[in-house]
């Protein structure tokens, strides 16, 4: 997982659309389905399964009223798309952003199906969102919007049905409000048994240690596997990071402990360059306080075009989709693009990167650490357990390593891209389940 004018606590901050795509509507769901079709061909997926997976099971659109601070009533449009629940309950984030659309939510819900299957989690794929700018409402209004939306979703969600989580524009606090709202609608007898209705909650109310950094941590585990495979030393490596919200900042922070230096960052307010390297702790604190990198003193302002021309070892795109188009792909001077965001490369941009010999760690694999640790949180809620940070990190590392190696092996066997291989591994698991269960008449 998702441009975005707010810090994404599951992910990122926003940036303008890729220059090559500015004048064309970007059909995100069509792009994701294109990868599905390609992967289906690679593994010989039965046609009936491909047909089932070509559209979500449910597309829920809700228009709900909220009383604003000035007493006026404003109508909000919310979405929840439930793509597939063959392997388990629907799972996926809730996005607050002014550009939220049914097409985007459908694409992101489908990607969650592939991520959960790839990571071998007993979960399906879902995604939701509300169309508004969370930076333009008060904290009290944000709480009312969250509570009204989750109340309106009603029985469409639940700990054994559909389990939302944070995404662009939402955070742990929003999940606490969501959980409390749900708890107060199910009756007192069931209040304690429904903590797992959402994940990404604060630890104090049933969240798990390690969830905040999980997506960035999982991304780093993948980067480490890539580096080991290529005998590349992360100590002394340089990176550029687009989007310095949750995913971008934690990836930069964790890589800094391995000796890598972040020399350029960007978000919806602009781009900064510091050849000596940014202090990721200080920059992360700045963004949490100011909601952007704007005004951060330890960097030189550069243009978006200049950012994509900087020579570095690794690019971490951690904003929204469709950021690396044709021009960006031609200009990049990196060895690796590690996708912290969902769909940051357009198909045209990806083709150019591959032709240029630039490696890509695809989103379905690279940023799956978030949903994996969300699963750990859900399990802890189910069992009334509390795992240590070391236990969470150890489980996540093994899971990311296993998935990375499965994807690499299939890519080699089928002579396809890492992205198509990641989809293919996921589809094989889903196909096995359909093959055993058949279709209910």
Polypeptide structure, described:
The protein has 441 residues and is α/β, with parallel strands linked by helices. Helix content is 43%, strand content 16%. It contains 15 helices and 12 strands. The strands form 2 sheets. A 7-stranded mixed β-sheet has the order 9-8-7-6-10-11-12, with helices on both faces. It has a 5-stranded mixed β-sheet with strand order 1-2-4-3-5. Strand 6, helix 7 and strand 7 form a beta-alpha-beta unit. Helix 6 packs across helix 13, helix 6 crosses helix 14 and helix 7 runs antiparallel to helix 8. It is globular, with a radius of gyration of 20 Å. The N terminus is likely disordered.
Number of helices: 15
CATH class group of the domain at 57-205:
Alpha Beta
Number of distinct beta strands? 12
Spatial ordering of strands, largest sheet: 9-8-7-6-10-11-12
The CATH topology annotation of the domain at 57-205 reads as Rossmann fold
- Element string (H = helix, E = strand): HHEEEHEHEHHEHEEHEHEHEHEHHHH
C-alpha geometry = globular
Head-to-tail CA distance between termini = 34 Å
The biggest beta sheet reads: 7 strands, mixed
Averaged pLDDT: 92
């Amino acid at each position: 997982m998702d441009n975005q004018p707010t810090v994404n606590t599951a992910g990122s901050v926003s940036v303008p659309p890729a220059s090559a795509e500015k004048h064309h509507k970007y059909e995100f769901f069509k792009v994701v389905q294109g990868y599905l079709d390609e992967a289906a061909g690679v593994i010989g997926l039965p046609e009936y399964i491909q047909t089932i997976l070509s559209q979500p099971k449910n597309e829920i659109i809700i228009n709900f009223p909220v009383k604003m601070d000035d007493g006026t009533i404003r109508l909000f449009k919310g979405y929840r798309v439930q793509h597939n629940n063959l392997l388990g309950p629907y799972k996926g984030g809730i996005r607050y952003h002014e550009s939220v659309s049914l097409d985007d939510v459908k694409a992101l819900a489908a990607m969650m199906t592939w991520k959960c299957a790839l990571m071998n989690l007993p979960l399906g794929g879902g995604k939701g969102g509300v169309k508004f700018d969370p930076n333009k409402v008060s904290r009290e209004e944000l709480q009312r919007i969250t509570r009204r939306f989750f109340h309106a979703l009603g029985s469409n969600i639940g700990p054994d049905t559909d389990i939302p989580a944070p995404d662009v524009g939402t955070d742990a606090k929003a999940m606490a409000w969501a959980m409390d709202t749900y708890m107060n609608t199910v009756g007192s007898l069931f209040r304690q048994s429904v903590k797992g209705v959402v994940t990404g909650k604060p630890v104090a109310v049933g969240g798990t240690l390690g969830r905040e950094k999980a997506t960035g941590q999982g991304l780093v585990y993948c980067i480490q596997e890539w580096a080991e495979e290529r005998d590349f030393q992360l100590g002394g490596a340089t990176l550029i990071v687009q989007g310095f919200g949750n995913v971008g900042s934690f990836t930069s922070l964790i890589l800094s402990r391995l000796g890598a230096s972040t020399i350029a960052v960007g978000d919806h307010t602009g781009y900064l360059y510091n050849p000596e390297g940014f202090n990721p702790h200080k920059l992360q604190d700045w963004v949490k306080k100011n909601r952007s990198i704007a005004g951060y003193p330890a960097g030189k302002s550069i243009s978006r075009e200049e950012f994509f021309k900087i020579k570095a070892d690794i690019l971490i795109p951690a904003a929204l989709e469709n950021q690396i188009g044709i021009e960006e792909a031609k200009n990049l001077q990196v060895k690796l693009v590690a996708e912290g965001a969902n769909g940051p490369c357009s198909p045209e941009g990806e083709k150019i990167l591959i032709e240029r010999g630039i490696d890509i760690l695809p989103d379905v694999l690279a940023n799956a650490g978030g949903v994996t640790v969300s699963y750990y949180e859900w399990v802890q809620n189910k069992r009334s357990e509390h795992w240590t940070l070391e236990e969470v990190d150890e489980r996540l590392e093994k899971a990311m390593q296993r998935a990375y190696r499965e994807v690499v092996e299939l890519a080699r066997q089928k002579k396809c891209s890492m992205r198509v291989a990641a989809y293919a591994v996921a589809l094989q698991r889903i196909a096995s389940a359909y093959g055993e269960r058949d279709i209910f008449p």
